[in-house]
Amino acid sequence: MTEFIMANPAACHTERETMSEQRKALPGAINDIMKSLEDDACFAHIGDEPIHFSTSVKEMIDLFREILFPGYFSKEKVDSANLPYHMGQAISHLYDILSEQVIHVLRHDCLRYDLACSECEPRGNDVALKVIQAIPDMRRCLAEDVKGAFDGDPAAKSHDEVIFSYPGLYAITVYRIANILHTLKVPQLPRIMSEYAHSLTGIDIHPGATIGKRFVIDHGTGIVIGETSVIGDNVRIYQNVTIGALSLPPDAGEKLRWAKRHPTIEDDVIVYSGATILGGDTVIGARSVVGGNVWLTQSIPPDTKVFIENPRLIIKNQENDHEKVS
Q: For 107-137, how does the pLDDT look when each residue is reduced to its tens digit (9 = 90+)?
């Protein structure tokens, strides 16, 4: 027989009174917060053009993938009968969303930072058209990325598997779109797109990085590729790799904002998991291999292998606590 525990009416009444007392304190907290908005040392975005990115950026990336890989990410079957209609609808919709987003960020910066008029609407429309016109070249580039991932990974059973399921390809796809927007000097939007991909994959590629063909990210989680990185063709990078900047002084923002701060990785290089490569003057020569957990702040010539010496391992037998060192 189920036993029911009766609530204590007196206790419930006391809890309701306590909650009421807490709500009574809210006006004071609200007043303190409102006063804090007068502090210029903190940040607020009041009275400026709002930015609504969360849903439209996802929709925009989804549309790009649908167009870049026709039939893979469509909600309905795509065949020869409906392909022109389907692609026309998708491309037209993408143009509308992309132009709106670009106009939005241009207008936002113009108004917030009191910039000279940049003719936001015609410029936004022009940028959207240029990006869409770049899609054929982007498709060819991504096809090489897919082939590179498949050719170098025995776990990949088909090109379809790479396209459907590899987080590295997702991050590279978003990077290649965002990089074009970055090159066209669109503010904010490229970085927001990259950070959206970062939140899904754990792969952080700055849209300003320069990355060649057949770029492969294997596994990928924890990868960081900085803004001024230059990566050649046929490069493969494994998880937890950082291609970053050296430690910077507190005032580095203004001094080094436009300087090259991140390494150059030449063609046909492999960088294994956990490696850290830092510094704008650091060049990893072509056909080199950087081993796992290597820390590099200096250049290495082409055809070089860099590995860490085997660590000292201590292996203990749990039964007799016998220790073996290797």
A: 888 877 777 777 899 999 999 999 999 999 9
Do 168 and 311 lie in one domain? The reply is no
Q: What is the CATH number of the domain that holds 312?
A: 2.160.10.10
Which of 142, 152, 147 lies closest to 179, judged by CA? Answer: 142
- Which of 5-9, 22-26, 115-119, 267-271 has maximum average pLDDT? 267-271
Q: Can you give the three-state secondary structure of the chain, one letter per residue?
A: CCCCCCCCHHHHHHHHHHHHHHHHCHHHHHHHHHHHCCCCCCCCCCCCCCCCCHHHHHHHHHHHHHHHCCCCCCCCCCCCCCHHHHHHHHHHHHHHHHHHHHHHHHHHHHHHCCCCCCCHHHHHHHHHHHHHHCHHHHHHHHHHHHHHHHHHCCCCCCHHHHHHHCHHHHHHHHHHHHHHHHHCCCCCHHHHHHHHHHHHHCCEECCCCEECCCCEECCCCCCEECCCCEECCCCEECCCCEEECCCCCCCHHHHHCCCCCCCEECCCCEECCCCEEECCCCEECCCCEECCCCEECCCECCCCEECCCCCCCEEECCCCCCEEEC
- Indicate whether 132 belongs to any domain: yes
Q: What CATH number did the domain enclosing 98 receive?
A: 1.10.3130.10
CB distance 51 to 108 below 8 Å: yes
Identify whether the C-beta of residue 228 lies closer than 8 Å to the C-beta of residue 209: yes
- Residue that terminates a domain, selected from 140, 172, 203: 203
CA distances from 78 to 84, 104, 165, 309 (A): 10, 33, 20, 54
Whole-model pTM: value is 0.84
Beta pairing partners, 306:
290
* Length of the chain (residues): 326
Q: Do 207 and 190 contact (CB within 8 A), yes or no? A: yes
| Phi/psi-derived region of residue 281, left when phi > 0, alpha when psi is between -120 and 50, beta in every other case | alpha
* CA atoms lying within 13 Å on the CB side of residue 75: 4
